[in-house]
Amino acid sequence: MSTEQHDVDAYGQELERISHHQSEAIAARFTVFQALAAVGIGQEQADDIVSKLEAGAAEHPTDGVLDKVNLEIVG
Q1: Domain count, the chain
Q2: Given CB 3.0 to 4.6 Å as the disulfide criterion, which of 28, 46, 56, 66 pairs with 36?
Q3: What is the residue-level pLDDT of the chain in tens, covering all 75 positions?
Q4: What is the full DSSP assignment across the chain?
């Protein structure tokens, strides 16, 4: 196999991996919105909560993200 063919294959595999993770992230985001709606959280507040979760996950990917987010669901 030529180096060029290997590079093309590796690039395609990486694109497939990224696409898979993006699909999983979209599905997870949708699930969170559904769960928040099910407990009576409005769309605007849900957007705020999900934004905080995503920001926390990006900033601290291995920390307890939920510990860093003030969900304000109860009360």
Answers
A1: 1
A2: 46
A3: 566 666 778 888 999 999 998 999 899 899 999 999 999 999 999 999 998 888 877 666 655 555 545 544 544
A4: --HHHHHHHHHHHHHHHHHHHHHHHHHHHHHHHHHHHHTT--HHHHHHHHHHHHHHHHH-TTS-HHHH-------
